Amino acid sequence: MSAVPHADLANAIRFLSADAVQKAKSGHPGMPMGMADVATVLFTRFLTFDPAAPRWPDRDRFVLSAGHGSMLLYSLLYLTGYADIDLDQIKSFRQLGARTAGHPEYGHVAGAETTTGPLGQGLANAVGMALAERMTAARFGEAVVNHRTYVIAGDGCLMEGISQEAISLAGHMKLERLIVLWDDNRICIDGDVGLASSDDVPARFQASGWRTLACDGHDPQDITRALTEAQTSDRPTLIACRTIIGKGAPTLQGTAKTHGSPLGDAEIAGARAALGWPHAPFEVPEPILSAWRTAGARGGVARVAWEDRLASLPGDERATLIRALAGDLPAGWEDAVLAAKRALIETRPKVASRKASQMALEVLVPQIPELVGGSADLTGSNLTQVKGQADILPGSYGGHYIHYGVREHGMGSLMNGLALHGGVIPYGGTFLVFADYMRPAIRMAALMGLRAIYVLTHDSIGLGEDGPTHQPVEHLASLRAIPNLWTFRPADAVETLECWALAVGRSDGPSLLALSRQDLPTLREAYGEENLSAKGAYVVAGEGPRDVTLIATGSEVTIAMAARELLAADGLAAAVVSMPSWELFEAQSAEYREAVLGPRARRVAVEAASAFGWERWVEDKTAVVGMPGFGASGPIGDLYEHFGITAEAVARVAKARAEG
Amino acid sequence: MSAVPHADLANAIRFLSADAVQKAKSGHPGMPMGMADVATVLFTRFLTFDPAAPRWPDRDRFVLSAGHGSMLLYSLLYLTGYADIDLDQIKSFRQLGARTAGHPEYGHVAGAETTTGPLGQGLANAVGMALAERMTAARFGEAVVNHRTYVIAGDGCLMEGISQEAISLAGHMKLERLIVLWDDNRICIDGDVGLASSDDVPARFQASGWRTLACDGHDPQDITRALTEAQTSDRPTLIACRTIIGKGAPTLQGTAKTHGSPLGDAEIAGARAALGWPHAPFEVPEPILSAWRTAGARGGVARVAWEDRLASLPGDERATLIRALAGDLPAGWEDAVLAAKRALIETRPKVASRKASQMALEVLVPQIPELVGGSADLTGSNLTQVKGQADILPGSYGGHYIHYGVREHGMGSLMNGLALHGGVIPYGGTFLVFADYMRPAIRMAALMGLRAIYVLTHDSIGLGEDGPTHQPVEHLASLRAIPNLWTFRPADAVETLECWALAVGRSDGPSLLALSRQDLPTLREAYGEENLSAKGAYVVAGEGPRDVTLIATGSEVTIAMAARELLAADGLAAAVVSMPSWELFEAQSAEYREAVLGPRARRVAVEAASAFGWERWVEDKTAVVGMPGFGASGPIGDLYEHFGITAEAVARVAKARAEG
Question: Which domains does chain B have, with CATH numbers?
Answer without folding.
Answer: 6-304 (3.40.50.970), 333-521 (3.40.50.970), 536-659 (3.40.50.920)
